[in-house]
Amino acid sequence: MMALSKALLRVAAVTCLASPSLGADTYTLPPYSPAYEPRTLDERGLWMEADVHEKRLAGSPMRIRDDHLSQYVRDVLCRTVGSDRCGGVRVYIVDIPAFNATMMPNGAMSVWSGLLLRVRSEAELGAVLGHEFAHFELRHSLLGFQNRRSNSDLAAWIQVLGAIAQRDVSDTQLSIVGSVYRFNREQEKQADLLGLKYLKSSPYPSRSASEVWQHLMEEADATAAGRMIRKKHQYSAGFFDTHPTELNRADYLLEEALKFNDPGEAGAKEHYKAVEKYLPRFLSSQIRLNDFGGTEYIVSGIAGHTGWTGALLQARADMYVSRGNVRDLITATTLYLNAIDSGYQRPEIYRGLGLGLIKLGRNDDGRKYLKLYLENVPDAQDKKMIQLYIDDAGGE
Amino acid sequence: MKLLTLLTGLTLVVSTSANAHKLIEPGLREGVAGGVFSVSVPTTMNRLQQKEGKFQEIWTVDGDGLNKIIFFGGVPDGEALLRQRDKKNNPLPRFNSKMLLAEIPAYLETSYRSYYGSPKVNIGEMSPVQFLNQKGIRFDYKYMSVEDEVVRSGMGYATVKEQKLYMIIFEAPEIFFYGRDIGVFEKIASSLRLL
After folding, report:
1. How much of chain B is helix, strand and coil, in % rounded to 5?
2. Coil, strand or helix: which one is A105?
3. Distance from the A196 Cα atom to the nearest Cα atom in chain B, whole angstroms
4. What's the pLDDT tens digit per position in A215-264?
């Protein structure tokens, strides 16, 4: 779990504009005026800090600088929150294999590659982006900052007064800390609900928001099963939780979506078409996380929409190679061969297949594929190493 | 009075040798990484008191953020490279003695992703070399540390003997430090012997 300060920075969203009333009407979005400039001292300070963070993010080596991918994410954002809202947002895609997106108080949004890998449609992506934008519209950074400041002021004063009165104030201190975390969870829930309203006004079905959390819970179950530990999903958040639990979110998001009753086109095909070029890269990073169960769940989930494409077969084979039990090599070999048969003939497949066959003791077959690998990539970085295996297979 | 307090403070700080690093003089040094290696040290170095795993020993000249040499003295089959901090929720991959030499860089990469949360490790060139008097692999890599977002370059030599992994790696920021200190590492790696 992240430290509090990191987590709270993460949910930094700029302050909203005029209307704070969220509950007034369940269906209409509050009015929004673009080109907003921060007004109060606190807000200007927050934006100034956020500008510094954004500069770092824009120059970060972790950033994926692909125009098509960024444009795709922007398009989904604009379709979700509307073009008058999405105009001022800058989207940065970051190559981190975990499910996350963040929004800064000044309108800079970052989307992690793990998120793009896990969402199964434009609607699910829109649900997450809408949630982040909701933090921005509702001024959560500013309000959160002011809340933490007044609570820490309060805690400091109570400490002093307690010392003067010679009383133990640790219980009060604890409930003040608790209220900060609870405030944070409240903000997350508000962002969820406003995000849902964006979805209602968009061409996407609002039920997709709940599905995001359902899939995450299933992935967590798969990870736990793969590691042979027990995973329990809880309804109520713990004391130090910064967000409501996944189960809780899936529940209230589904409940509200049922009230909205808005079917729509989720856009699963469009999503996979947009990320198709990056899927092998995202999957390869995911496999390196040493989470067999979770990765299997993700890969199978994608296959449910796109079918077992060559890229997915290769990823699945790489997954088994990474786990490395003896029978896994046999599975991996079969999967690599299936990928090749499907017409997906990448050099990495030849390499993986060749090395796997050598490990299984099938030296002639292994050599054949390693030769194919070197033919396809004559200047491979591991050329000398692979040539050694070709010349001398099994002689380790 | 003030001077006395200051001096007492200073001596308290200096005299605690519990967490001090150890100076390594140039010359032949034996018993590195749990009594496993002997090495010829070309220049004065420091051995860090902290370790990230029981088969590991870390040396540095300017601090481990700027240049570090890590010795892995015989990781046995079934053990992880580094200490398992959270076996249940974030397990490190275990070394499998049936791994091919060509798979060791990927094994290092997966360990780094689990242990440090590095989002990306790029493996570079791999070549077969003689290491510890038998067939080994030399490889280089680059990764970015999430803490300081500095890109570091690394080079490693590894081999597997009697089902144990023996490895030495060198890491330094890509800018300036790697190029400056790689020579020292190559000298140390070429002088490495098993005891």
Report:
1. 25, 40, 35
2. coil
3. 31
4. 999 999 999 999 988 888 888 888 888 888 888 899 999 999 999 888 88
Please tell me the distance from the alpha carbon of residue A374 to that of residue A385, in angstroms, as a whole number: 11
Query: Which helix (H) or strand (E) element contains residue B146?
Result: none
Indicate the pTM of the whole model.
0.84
User: Cα(A394)–Cα(B15) distance, rounded to whole angstroms?
Assistant: 56
Q: Which of B87, B90, B100, B123 to mutate to test the interface with A (most CBs of A within 10 A)?
A: B100
Residues B94-138: tens digit of each pLDDT: 999 989 999 999 999 999 888 887 877 899 999 999 999 999 999
Taking CA–CA distances from A360, the nearest residue in chain B reads: B98
ipTM of the complex: 0.82
Band (pLDDT 50/70/90 cuts) for residue A184 is confident
Q: How many Å lie between the alpha carbon of A49 and the closest alpha carbon of chain B?
A: 18
Q: How far is A236 from chain B (nearest CA, A)?
A: 21
Residue among A342, A389, A395 nearest A366 (CA): A389
Interface probe with A: pick from B90, B120, B146, most Cβ of A within 10 Å: B120
pLDDT tens digits, residue range B150-188?
899 999 999 999 999 999 999 999 999 999 999 999 999
Task: Please count the other Cβ atoms lying within 10 Å of the Cβ belonging to residue B122.
Answer: 13
* Out of A62, A382, A386, closest to residue B119 by CB: A62
| Three-point CA angle B130, B135, B139, nearest 5° | 70
